Amino acid sequence: MGSPDLSIVTGALSYSGKYITRKLLAAGQRVKTITGHPDRANPFGAQVEVAPFRFEDLGGLIETLRGATTLYNTYWVRFPMKGMTYEKATENSKVLIRAAEEAGIKRIVHVSIVKPSKDSPFGYYRGKAEVEETIQASSLSYAILRPTVFFGGEDILINNISWSLRFFPAFPIAGKGDYRIQPIFVEDFAEIAVQQGQATENVVWDVVGPEQYTFRELLRMICRQIGRSALLIPVAPFAMYWGARMIGLLMRDVMLTKDEVGGLMAGLLASDEEPRGATKLSEWIALNQDLLGTVYASELKRR
Ligand SMILES: NC(=O)c1ccc[n+]([C@@H]2O[C@H](COP(=O)([O-])OP(=O)(O)OC[C@H]3O[C@@H](n4cnc5c(N)ncnc54)[C@H](OP(=O)(O)O)[C@@H]3O)[C@@H](O)[C@H]2O)c1
User: Fold this and answer.
1) Shortest-distance Cα residue to atom 11 of ligand 1
2) In this structure, which residue's CA is closest to atom 25 in ligand 1?
3) Is ligand 1 within 6 A of the CB of residue 160?
4) Which tens digits make up the pLDDT trace of 90-102?
């Protein structure tokens, strides 16, 4: 018997990449990660080789990827920071795709976002659409997986909404709060990603959870589960953004971006496709109600 297949996972020491890596290792595969934080604590020890991103050095990046069959790509930037922009992240993603082709990688499982569009008013969604287009024009076989919002583990958004509901008496809610949101459990997502790493067909899938809420319903459900009764106050969208901005300043973080408020209100965080995840957010919260939102999760501290 030869040695097991080698997979490359971007960000195995970060969030979703960590769950993908766990599932790959459990399935007996070998994993190498590429990351912007090669010195970060490695929970996998010697099981996962760690290499730095080398977007500025195509030849070096090709050598890092050589020998692998599948690339699980989680790489992206949530919002522009420290000189990193959506344009730069798009450019880096293109370098990674080219390096994967040249290194002989056969398949890419790429993490995108529901409803990316080159015409979107939001840079995040425009960049995602451009990267998807590059993958589809490449020689790689692909599974493009489009989640909405992850929950579970080191999640930021659902955790920090719950944190606000726990510690503040009121929550500003943009407009009527009737726009939809459909989060997916990060472990369900990782399972689907790993299954798709074994497949050969080209697919572009929304990957969302089984429960869809309006934003107002989501907040009410979280309040019930964590035993809080924060007042939901309808406000103009800019006021919700500024509320989050104030909390961000307080916590030295960026809690929510303008694009995230805009995307949420435009209904971009829900899908019209059949849900592929099985874990219900309401049931997961019921199991984690004592812990959820007890500590603020800072994006900037992770960077
Ligand atoms: N989190 C969500 O709720 C959510 C929802 C929809 C779609 N997605 C998509 O899912 C994918 C993974 O998301 P995630 O939350 O699991 O991300 P993550 O683990 O925080 O980061 C994924 C990868 O991107 C790199 N990265 C993130 N921000 C960066 C920055 N500012 N500069 C340079 N590199 C950066 C990370 O680098 P390091 O290895 O150095 O940490 C890591 O390799 C992304 O493509 C995202 O767009 C996420």
Assistant:
1) 74
2) 75
3) no
4) 999 999 999 999 9
Residue type, 4: P
Q: Which of 246, 245, 267, 265 is nearest to 256 (CA)?
A: 245
Q: How far, in Å, CA of 5 to CA of 10, rounded?
A: 16
Query: What domains lie within the chain, and their CATH numbers?
Result: 6-146 (3.40.50.720), 154-181+210-302 (3.90.25)
Please, which pLDDT band fits residue 1 given cuts at 50, 70 and 90?
A: low
- Which stretches of the chain are assigned E, i.e. beta strand? 6-10, 30-35, 48-52, 70-73, 107-111, 141-146, 150-151, 170-174, 180-181, 184-185, 203-206, 213-214, 231-235
| pLDDT tens digits, 143-185 | 999 999 999 999 999 999 999 999 999 999 999 999 999 999 9
Is the Cβ–Cβ distance between 286 and 225 less than 8 Å?
yes
> Rounded to two decimals, what is the model's pTM?
0.97
Nearest-angstrom CA–CA distance, 174 and 234:
6
- Pocket probe mutation, ligand 1, options 9, 10, 14, 205, max atoms within 8 Å of Cβ: 14
Calpha distance 300→3 (Å, rounded): 39
Q: Tell me which H or E stretch contains 63.
A: helix 58-65
112 CB-side CA count, 13 A: 30
Of 15, 149, 302, which is best to mutate to test ligand 1, by the most ligand atoms within 8 angstroms of its C-beta?
15
